[in-house]
Design brief:
heterotrimer, A alpha+beta (161), B alpha+beta (789), C alpha+beta (293), A: alpha+beta, globular, B: alpha+beta, Aldehyde Oxidoreductase, domain 4, 19 helices, 27% helix, 25% strand
């Protein structure tokens, strides 16, 4: 039984290479081998969304993808959004302003889903925002701060009349 | 898209100070950029991974454990059973006596690994440690355990029935506690009342399901014979105490640290669990750090939770709708282990914001072969609120009164504080509401909900065959529980104020809120304050973060220590500036003479002198006390009492049973507020949890104690799409119990939601004669209620 | 929990995949979107000796017009594509109507048509939609190829007509008749979760506005999607009046016999089948009228 395979992929814009066990999921690979611990594991069945990362631009559950399946792919995680703590993205800054984070465990996955959906649709309605967030569970915030953060981002982008 | 947006500007001191200002949290930048430090994120070189072997049976003797095949697997480092850990197999210390005088809790004795038998499906019987979690689970698959299955009691009713199988043989029955509290003369009041009503309610709650499960890593230092335990716990000092006891170590050789980031707690992370002792034992055996990360299935199976209460509640009242008496008798499922926190709180929550002169409150808490229980956000209060608020609705219906009016006729008025209810609260002190204005809270909630118009719309919609309902719920919540919490404040060599407190955060924003209090009381800038939490090595005494207690305990401690530190700083600066301390002020990181901004010294310089930093061999200036440090442990005289009022307006589709919430209004009073942004976030999160308890999540066990809903597919939690937009307002009645006037807000959102939703659904379906006596609801249950009515 | 060990194969062609299935049969599981199989692997509820990852088999991921005006959808086509493809939206509107009920956006990124059909969860939407559409499924093996009507493909809960060495490769959909409207209705505890009950329906009208064809398929009410044949027959040839739709609903409810579970009573599911049938037919009628032009 071949147990491992060498993979190469682009993670947050950087080429990475590693040898992975066949059965290792993408999220475990990112966290343990690449030490990108900003993405978390909450349920291992695709329900909670904490493990959501972007693969070739699309939001996927990192717990439901094998690392070997990401060979040759372009992966984006929460660590790739802002260059550093001093320079948050506008989305992250709105999350701060509107108290969209409490314990922070679910936050990485949520930011990635929102990043992907905002690329597709930069001016979502509240219902559309809640639809994107429908694939994420948060037990702390009640989500309203997150929704308000995205609404504020949309409003800030509106050209002044 | 990534235009450099700067970190939120340094918080300006608003007029009046930082306390009360909606300052954005400092925690956020690291959490938003993936730099959080949760237990499983911590770098632990050489760490080995534990997997727990768990009993599939709810009640069984362990006859034999065969680990031979498992041991042979490459990468397996150890497999241990009860025999191997004999040196720490002491009976766990009992956690909580009964707070009600004259009553007692009968403690079931348990051990880290079961000695006689397993008592719930999911109880740990052995541990595998390997180089990876996957390998540990491979080995776990090969561990063979032979069980002798025993009869199961899977509900409180079954456990209390005569002849029931015993969870703890030595107790002789399954009663963990039978606690009665009485006020006045309830029998007389019932006998002479114009009206009495009696109903039975079943309320099932569930688990915490914080997004991070339990998590613990233990490191053993051979040279110091000591442990360092990184633990996603809400109560590091309690965990330390039990570990020290089990391992026969002095407390200073067991250090428990809740890392700066814990992914939600909600109650169950307050308990002590076998896994915490086991990783320590294994770390010492293997001389490597050992980590155990709970997966979601394990959380369903073995993390503490709340389950079912069954209440039979009676009220007596006059024809004008004045309550005369209340009798509430209920059962509570304790599981195979648990402190009696929740049912005591339930009992004390039932009378609520109403004047009830005669009370008989009685509960039996029963041991069952189900997972251990603890308080889950709300901690027994939602159940108490549900039964009382349902009865208020029934009283209103009986008398033809509007449900809000029925409540107004009984609310404790604003001038009646402190208000003694007559019962003993779970802290052992008399249940005495400290402050509040319940009529105003309800009035304003109804005003914001535009209640008269909502009733008119309801009538119009009903005429069109649509089923709109309005539910109202108001409740009082014991918060700020003692016995104490502490704070140590220091001015360090950089001139920064370091606040150390024992209570660790799981998302409540203590790094921000504590800094706000310290900054105001010491008189420094918010950005010059650092906060350290949750480390038993940094502060000797602490209780923990639960029961909505931290702001009201740690807050005053920080304030007191802060004031003292300020005086010490000024005394040292006075020496340096050759001025009177009374003439000095602190601004912009320095101490200067009032009116003479050029005559000042930076705080770092004050610290150098104050912390004993004169040149080596020189004499400390006379009169100066060494050490710019102050500590305070604030012990409140009693719990405080917050209050909430909710109005829920919803539509029910009678053909499918689906519910659509049209409006949801929340009014909340938690006394003075340190950070409104944080408090609102706590309320909103609580409302989401409450809504989940009302319409979504439900724990299900069969008669063999098997969990029938052990994944999120069968145990739904609401997402943003299920949540209505919550409209919120605040009322402030400061608490006289502590100098900050604060109460507590962490759980408040959960309390009235099931009651408000139940009331609204019943109201919507009044034309069908529906009775909502059981929670939670879902479309199928609602539809069945219609068809059975 | 972490997956057990398995041998992993990622064939690039259908033939390779079939060869692997022929070699490993019962000991193999096909990995497509992974949204159903990966949770089972993570929880060790499935312990296949071999995992055959077909995600690189590009031949399985195409959507093309059928020779007769219908559609051919490869088994590996992502649910997200089913949602968004203009060709699918134009030629088979019922698929797009089902998609909002299928999981969440992040699930639909990876989940596939074939995976959902092969998994055959009784409360899933796509199996019922395929039965309602009269889809024909192509099953291939090293031994050859056969097509199976969707109605015959779903045998029992989580069980299909697939032999251990067979791979579902393609779904063929007939042309969408003129003057046909459709609807998918579902009740779940949360939108996107598995159905407490659901109905996929279509109505075809003739030039006089009478019902020329009707399809009513109930799901979440039994081990497999159920065609409410009596309900369908009651409609054909008649005017689609409110009374006729209500009667069809009554017949659909009468035809199902769901059992109780922790979430819902069988009685509720039975009532729901009737209610949702009537609603789905009413919505189908409204969109058939819109398509009439």
């Amino acid at each position: 039984m071949t147990e491992t395979r060498a993979i190469s992929l682009i993670v947050n814009g950087r080429p990475r290479g590693a040898t992975v066990e066949m059965r290792t999921t993408l999220v475990d690979f990112l966290r343990e081998q690449l030490r990108l611990t900003g993405t978390h594991v909450g349920c291992e069945q695709g329900a909670c969304g904490a493990c959501t990362v972007l693969v070739d631009g699309e939001p996927v559950r990192g717990c439901l993808l094998l690392a070997v399946q990401a060979d040759g792919a372009r992966v984006e995680t929460v660590e790739g959004l802002a260059p550093d703590l001093e320079h948050l993205t506008p989305l992250q800054a709105e999350f701060v302003r509107h108290h969209g984070v409490q314990c922070g465990f679910c936050t990485g996955g949520i930011l990635m889903s929102l990043t992907a959906s905002l690329r597709d649709n930069p001016r979502p309605t509240e219902a559309e925002i809640r639809d994107t967030l429908a694939g994420h569970l948060c037990r702390c915030t009640g989500y309203q701060g997150m929704v308000d953060a995205v609404l504020a981002l949309v409003a800030a982008a509106e050209p002044a009349r | 898209m990534t235009a450099p947006a700067s970190r939120p500007a340094a918080a300006r001191r608003p007029a009046g100070g930082y306390i009360g200002a909606p300052i954005p949290r400092r925690e956020d930048a690291r959490l938003l950029t993936g730099r959080g430090t949760f237990v499983d994120d911590l770098e632990m070189p050489g760490v080995a991974h534990a997997a727990m072997v768990r009993s599939p049976h709810a009640h069984a003797r362990v006859r034999r454990i065969d680990t031979e095949a498992a041991r042979a697997l490459p990468g397996v480092l150890a497999i241990v059973t009860a025999e191997d850990i004999a040196d720490i197999q002491k009976p766990w210390p009992a956690r909580m006596p009964s707070p009600v005088p004259g009553t007692s809790v009968r403690h079931g004795v348990r051990h880290t690994l079961p000695v006689a038998k397993v008592r719930h499906a999911g109880e740990v019987v052995a541990v595998v440690v390997a180089e990876s979690r996957a390998l540990a689970e491979d080995a776990r698959d090969l561990v063979e355990v032979e069980y002798e299955v025993l009869p199961v009691v899977a509900t409180a009713a079954a456990a209390l029935a005569p002849g029931a199988s015993l969870v703890y043989e030595e107790l002789g029955d399954n009663i963990a506690a039978h606690i009665i509290q009485r006020v006045g003369h309830p029998e007389r009041a019932f006998a002479s009342a114009d009206h009495t009503l009696r109903e039975t309610f079943r309320v099932m709650r569930g688990g915490s399901h914080s997004m991070e499960g339990r998590a613990v890593v233990a490191r053993y230092d051979e040279a110091l014979d000591s442990f360092t335990v990184w633990d996603a716990t809400q109560a590091p000092h309690a965990i330390r105490a039990i570990l020290a006891y089990l391992f026969d170590l002095p407390e200073h050789r067991v250090r428990v640290i809740a890392p700066p980031d814990v992914g939600g707690g909600l109650g169950p992370k307050t308990s002590f669990y076998p896994e915490e002792a086991l990783v320590c034992w294994l770390a010492r055996r293997l001389r490597r750090p050992v980590k155990w990360i709970e997966d979601r299935l394990e959380h369903f199976m073995s993390a503490a939770q709340e389950r079912e209460q069954v209440h039979t509640i009676e009220i007596a009242f006059t024809r004008d709708g004045a309550l005369l008496a209340l009798r509430d008798v209920f059962t509570h499922d304790v599981g195979m282990y648990g402190a009696l926190i929740a049912p005591v709180i339930t009992a004390c929550t039932v009378p609520g914001p109403y004047r009830v002169p005669n009370i008989h409150s009685e509960f039996r808490a029963a041991y069952t072969n189900l997972p251990p229980t603890a308080a889950v956000r709300g901690a027994g209060r939602p159940q108490g609120v549900l039964v009382m608020e349902r009865m208020m609705d029934r009283m209103a219906e009986t008398l033809g009164l509007d449900p809000a009016e029925a409540r107004f006729r009984n609310l404790i008025p604003a001038d009646a504080f402190p208000y003694p209810v007559g019962m003993v609260f779970r802290d052992g002190a008399p249940l005495t509401y400290d402050s509040g204005d319940y009529p105003e809270l309800l009035r304003r909630a109804l005003e914001i909900a535009d209640y008269p118009r909502a009733r008119r719309e309801q009538a119009e919609l009903r005429a069109q065959g649509r089923h709109r309902g309005i539910g109202v719920a108001i409740c009082v919540e014991g918060v700020g529980l003692g016995p104490f919490e502490g704070a140590i404040l220091r001015l360090d060599s950089r001139g920064r104020v370091v606040v150390t407190s024992g209570a660790p955060p799981q998302g409540q924003g203590y790094q921000t809120a504590f800094a706000q209090i310290a900054a105001d009381m010491v008189g420094v800038r918010f950005e010059d304050v650092d906060v350290v939490t949750g480390d038993t090595g940094a502060i000797p005494y602490g209780i923990g973060s639960f029961a909505s207690r931290v702001t009201a305990n740690a807050g005053p401690a920080i304030a007191l220590a802060g004031g003292e530190l300020r005086q010490k700083i000024l005394a040292v600066a006075a020496h340096l500036l050759e001025a009177a301390a009374a003439d000095l002020e602190i601004a912009d990181g320095a101490v200067h003479v009032r009116g003479l901004p050029d005559r000042g010294v930076p705080l770092a310089q004050v610290a150098r002198l104050g912390n004993g930093g004169v040149a080596f061999g020189m004499v400390m200036p006379g009169g100066l006390q060494v050490g710019l440090e102050a500590s305070a442990y604030f012990a409140p005289s009693q719990a405080g009492y917050s209050a909430s009022a909710h109005v829920c307006i919803l539509d029910v589709d009678p053909d499918t049973g689906e519910v659509a919430i049209v409006r949801y209004v929340v009014g909340h009073d938690c006394g003075n507020v340190i950070n409104p942004l944080i408090v609102e976030g706590q309320i909103l999160g609580g409302v989401a949890h409450g809504l989940s308890n009302a319409l979504y999540e439900e724990a299900f066990y069969d008669s063999e104690g098997q969990n029938l809903a052990s994944s999120f597919l069968d145990y739904p939690l609401p997402s943003a799409r299920e949540m209505p937009r919550i409209e919120m307002f605040h009322l402030t009645t400061p608490s006289p119990i502590n100098p900050l006037g604060v109460k507590g807000a962490g759980e408040a959102g959960t309390l009235p939601v099931p009651a408000a939703v139940a009331g609204a659904v019943e109201d919507a379906l009044r034309p069908f004669g529906v009775r909502v006596n059981r929670m939670p609801l879902n479309p199928a249950r609602i539809s069945d209620l219609i068809h059975r009515a | 929990m972490k997956p057990p060990r398995f041998s992993y194969h990622d064939p690039a062609t259908v033939e390779e995949a079939l060869g692997l299935l022929a070699a490993h049969g019962d000991a193999a599981r096909v990995l497509a979107g992974g949204q159903s199989l990966m949770p089972m692997l993570n929880f060790r509820l499935a312990r296949p000796g071999h995992v055959i990852d077909v995600n690189r088999v590009a031949a399985l991921a195409t959507v093309s017009p059928g020779p007769d005006g219908g559609l051919r959808i490869g088994a590996l086509v992502r649910q997200r594509t089913l949602e968004r493809s203009p060709l699918i939206g134009e030629r088979c509107p019922m698929i797009g109507q089902a998609m909002p009920f299928v999981g969440h956006p992040q699930i639909r990124t990876r989940g596939t048509l074939g995976g959902s059909l092969a998994h055959a969860d009784p409360a899933a939407e796509l199996p019922a939609v395929m039965v309602a559409l009269g889809a024909r499924l192509t099953l291939r093996s090293a031994r050859g190829q056969r097509t199976v009507a969707a109605e015959d493909f779903f045998v029992a809960a989580l069980t299909t007509a697939l032999a251990p060495d067979e791979l579902l490769t393609e779904v063929a959909l007939p042309p969408w008749p003129a003057r046909t409207g459709s609807s998918v209705q579902e009740v779940a505890i949360r939108l996107g979760d598995f159905a407490l009950g659901g109905v996929a329906a279509a109505l075809t009208l003739d030039a006089q506005g009478r019902v020329a064809g009707a399809r009513v398929v109930c799901f979440g009410v039994g081990p497999r999607p159920l065609r409410a044949a009596a309900a369908e027959r009651s409609l054909v040839g008649g005017a689609p009046s409110a009374a006729a739709l209500a009667e069809a609903g009554r017949l659909a409810g009468a035809a199902v016999d769901p059992s109780d579970d922790i979430h819902a009573s069988g009685a509720y599911r039975k009532r729901l089948a009737g209610v949702l049938t009537t609603r789905a037919l009413a919505a189908s009628l409204a969109s058939a009228a819109a398509h009439a032009a």
